[in-house]
Amino acid sequence: MPASVFDQISDFTSCFFLGFAVGIVFDSFFFKRILKRRTKEILFFISSVLSTAVLIVGLMFINFYTLKWYTFLAIACGIYVYKNTISPLYKEFLKKVNKVLSFNKK
């Protein structure tokens, strides 16, 4: 039985916000610019694993792993919109938090 239009719109919206969450996870691990190369590689690995876990759990709750073309489109749109709207503000917030926590006067 095909899904109704409302179900498809609901899935699209949920996957859109899932893409937003993946963008937040990715930015959370890369807010500190002065890192050694090995530390950057480890943080990239951790953020990749965490992003994958967020996607898997999100897809399980949204549509029980049913992947359709609009699922990928919604996740990509969510990441794109996050990177172009909220990401700069979130990175500035993380820089200020980092400055306060490390007592670094840059």
UniProtKB/TrEMBL annotation:
The keyword Membrane applies. The chain crosses the membrane at residues 12-30, 42-63, 69-86. It comes from the Bacteria. Keywords: Membrane, Transmembrane, Transmembrane helix. It holds the Pfam family Spore_YabQ. The keyword Glycoprotein does not apply. NCBIfam families: spore_yabQ. This is Spore cortex biosynthesis protein, YabQ-like protein. The lineage of its organism: Bacteria, Bacillati, Bacillota, Bacillota incertae sedis, Caldicellulosiruptorales.
